[in-house]
């Protein structure tokens, strides 16, 4: 009997240590499935490896690099390695949007957007990776480069390099918005009223792992075999929840989100078809759980209405709370919500991580109305401008919904305009505006869904003696640094200062 137990314990370890080099001989990540006993076991395992979106109530799917896989093997759980399918797709062409561009075509396309529409579109080179590939983002606005009283909105896709539906949908969305400006009333209104940012490819090294000519060999992780969606500061687990240094891609995004105060965002992935709203890291519900369900259901319903049956209906009819599904630590969604006061959710756009190019037009038809609806939500809720009652200077003030806010769900007004945007499900709320050195102000507001409540607020300085306070500028800068949270998560300033090096402005606060 003892012999038998020893055999059971030793053999798997022996087998696996024999095979592990072989498993990782071609690429630095492995994809596999395993059965799990309960949610708590899965949450424990998710600290070790990267649980994949395809995970369901019976079977978990996961990725691991060599180090992670070695830790997983110590758990002695049976697993099945899933061999990577060799994709044999016929690529279409750009005019039909049934194709994946080469890396160079992608760069050319992003450049052409800003070259062709210079009044409303600007390409930003956020950073160049060691591979030489770039993280690119376009900004679309009627006064591109000029900060206005508008929400800043972000779409970003494919931080998992092999989840590529959103890559093409993002490119097509840019093209659609730019060409629709001045021709289509809704698109024109979006561009006139929102500061729109779209980054189609957050992990170019993963997407073009097999070379710049195609994405058929795309991988999930980056060039260092790190899962970028486990690499962010985490509300519960703090900095470096995955034990890795912040990757180049992560640092670039940390810098971007320190520079632009995004109010709403979505992070596009693939593998299933569902909206995943916060939190991922813990079971707490957000203060705005009902609002999240409302905008997520709006997204899913519109997808279903604009597609054949069976699309975007995973889990609860296309909507899930992140933690309810499976725990993620170090995800970007939670980082954006908790540390950047930005409402970001995760869009899982397609069951096939790399859809057949011929399916891309249908995915576009199903999703673009939802993508526009979600963007439009950034205009609604409670908004306004906070200023100093004496000088009329715009202020960075805390906007807190009393008896409601929790887990960092409050927001701040931002410079240089002083505008704030607080998204709320319809109802009556009591809101406090505060800033050190000023008397707080409490107001009651009514908010309706799909409507805007505007409340401009003047805060009175505590020490007002009838002359303008010469320290105002100094105070602003001190507080802006506090708000972006660097004391909590110190990091490499180099990236931050390199991001918009061609633009002669204070990069930490706002980009012109
Ligand atoms: Zn993903």
**On the 0-100 scale, what is the average pLDDT?**
88
- Profile the largest sheet: 8 strands, mixed
Oligomer class = single chain
Task: Give the count of helical stretches.
Answer: 15
Beta strands, count:
20
**General shape:** globular
Radius of gyration: 24 Å
Could you give me the name of the CATH homologous superfamily of the largest domain? Zn peptidases
| Secondary-structure class | alpha/beta
CATH topology of the largest domain: Aminopeptidase
CA(first)-CA(last) distance: 73 Å
Residue share in helices? 25-40%
- The domain count comes to 3
Ligand species: zinc ion
Strand order of the largest sheet: 5-6-8-7-9-12-10-11
Top CATH class of the largest domain:
Alpha Beta
Beta content: 15-25%
Low-confidence stretches: 1-16, 467-512
CATH architecture of the largest domain: 3-Layer(aba) Sandwich
List the defining traits of the structure above.
3 domains; 8-stranded mixed beta sheet; Immunoglobulin-like; 512 residues; Aminopeptidase; Alpha-Beta Plaits; disordered N terminus
Q: Concise description?
A:
By secondary structure, the chain is an alpha/beta fold. It contains 15 helices and 20 strands. The protein has three domains: 2-81, Alpha-Beta Plaits (2-Layer Sandwich), CATH 3.30.70; 94-377, Aminopeptidase, CATH 3.40.630; 383-469, Sandwich (Immunoglobulin-like), CATH 2.60.40.1120.
